[in-house]
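User: Last request for today: this protein with fe (ii) ion, please.
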Amino acid sequence: MARAGTPQDLTITPRDRRFGRGVAQDHWWISGDPVATAFYNALSATFPKGEAFFVESVRLFRDGTSPKLAAEIKAFVTQEVMHSREHVQFNKRALEAGYDLSGLEARVEWRLSITRSRPPIVNLAATMCLEHFTAILAHQLLKDPRHLKGADAESAALWRWHSIEEIEHKGVAYDTWLHATRALPRGKRWKIKAKVMLFVTRNFVIDRTWGTIELLRQDGITGPKAWARMFWFAWVRPGMLRKILGAWLAFFLPGFHPWNHDDRALIAKAEQGLKTQAEAYA
Ligand SMILES: [Fe+2]
Ligand SMILES: [Fe+2]
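Assistant: Here's the final one, the structure of the complex with fe (ii) ion:
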């Protein structure tokens, strides 16, 4: 496989956008669908604390990086801080629309407290794995309009904006990890990253499933019906988890790098769509 690495001419551009201020959110903001709403609300509940964790994990290894990577880390931090800010607002609107996210946030806090008790290099590895996760989710979200079909305009714009920037900075935690582990033999590096990826994937699937089921419970959808509907949504139609499976597996290939797949054309197209929408609402 070609070892492309992060493109030399990549620019990571923090876009200071605000979404949904002063706008009430529908309880089921995405096509009136409780399952889609629960899925994205559960994901959003993790971002403010989760992305703060990514930032602190990467920052610890910034010393000694090349000027290019140091600049990319800086831009990554700015982007993640703004994502946290906008998801705090999004979560506030979900609360006003009738969802209680406090249990989900407490679970994120609990999970992070365990991770933080591990050495910093393990935290960096976990961040690098979760950043791959967010990048492949983001790619799928932008690629297939069915995922956000029927979402209200402001919320759809928030998720697209976040997706654009997740793709744009997808190599930063990975390159920081490569820098931090440069003295390790390749086999050992691979073993650590594979082990950490399996571990964070397990936790990601368990925790997001739990969160989605909990939000469905708040809507009175429980038992086998809740599980069946969630399974159908995640794995069949629109099938986000099924669609990212190949990209998830690619992580384990020798020579993997997030930029082996250059998806900047997808970002450019999505950005054009966002601009057109912003102009329409201006
Ligand atoms: Fe983010
Ligand atoms: Fe990110």
